[in-house]
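New to this. Look over this protein:
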Amino acid sequence: MSEREMPHSDVFVIGAGPAGLTASYLLTKQGVATTVIEADPVYVGGISRTVNYKDFLFDIGGHRFFSKSKEVVDLWKEILPQDFITRPRMSRIYYDGKYYSYPLKAFEALNNLGVVESGLCVLSFMYKQAFPNEKPVTFHEWVANQFGERLFSIFFKTYTEKVWGMSCDDISADWAAQRIKGLDLWTAMSSALRNSMRPKGVKDGTKAYDGEVIKTLIESFEYPRKGPGMMWDAAAAKTRAQGGIIHMGTALESLAYDQATKRWTITAKTIDGQTKMFSANQIISSAPIRELVHSFDEKPACVEAADKLRYRDFITVSLVVEKPDLFPDNWIYIHEPSVKVGRIQNFRSWSPELIPNQTQSCLGMEYFCFEGDGLWAASDDELIALGKKELAIIGLTTEDDIKDGCVVRQKKAYPVYDDSYKANVETIRSELAEKYPTLHLVGRNGMHKYNNQDHAMMTSMLTVKNIMSGEMQYDIWNVNEDAEYHEAGNSGEEAALKSVRMVPRRVGSAA
């Protein structure tokens, strides 16, 4: 097929998750010819999609809609103006047969752990305050600095190693700094004490931009009434209504860049084996970096670095239970080493509209794994049987009460932060940026950064600004670099935007 015969777009977007659809919505809103490809034949939204099983709705991992960026929140409301509900946040930790509120409630934790163990935890924390790891490199060192070795062992080690399938000594401190920055033992205990002294109904963290609220401590969040897929279905529909084109069931096959014409040629393959070819001036990619690098016709030198990037995969075993309200939590963290499940979602607590009747409930048993390992390779029937058994072991219900279930496997749910990931990403980033200034990497897997969906959206929002201005005004790699962008409130948002601003350089316009 000649270049003239290929469908041509100003901007070509790879992936219809939060990052990709944010870009396509904003570009088409400004009249930019935009084409999107999505490998999934049914769902948009990526890991933020909503799955429908016999009218039971559930999302993959649970996605709170909370951001300290007003620009992101305004965009959520613009895309989905009428369908948000405010939900109370409740989560607990299950450990050694007992439940601990999360965030920590000091007196409850004291009672559950016992006076002796609690005293040892406080002494361990005080020791680390006096003799910290000055430059923590690993997750273990970073968390021990914040909570002490004893609380690290009780409340962080088992769960974290379930999530990542590797020792806490092999996980980079970057992950802890990004996910739980600003939270330590005194912060958690003082927050619990403040809340216990406030008048009933007044809680910390209920406003998205009200002061220095730590994300981990917020007590309410907004949520689309029928799950996060509502947001991304709406973004896709509005992209199409504004003239954009979305090809479902279409996966990236190869990329070629013509230095003479400054145009991209993209080859994709449909789920039924057809080959499609496109051309574009610019590409926005939220595809996993490893796959993207391997798609180049002329393999870049950074292929070796890309092959070293690792991903953690994810299984949701969704179980239908013949009881309406098993527990009030949105989710429970399972720190118990005797079971494989890492977290349990209670979808009715996310939104009553996710459950099609008043007599049943739907729970999501979440298992973290590597593609191809024993859990991943198990049959659906085996995984459902495991979920039923472990739910009964924990004591939340009996196996006889579980009447149905389904399994959803999610590849590359989490980019792994091992000790070499940062150097590998930098090698890839610097080579691609030098060779291909019109290729823009966005989103969680597109940047190999453990971003929340609001961070993923912001990387695309700023990328669109760069493309529309024709200049590299914002360095999107600084979005959520140390979580300040997410946590800092209105003034913090302004400071964060300053931190991502660059000395402008030409990147080529959208047209």
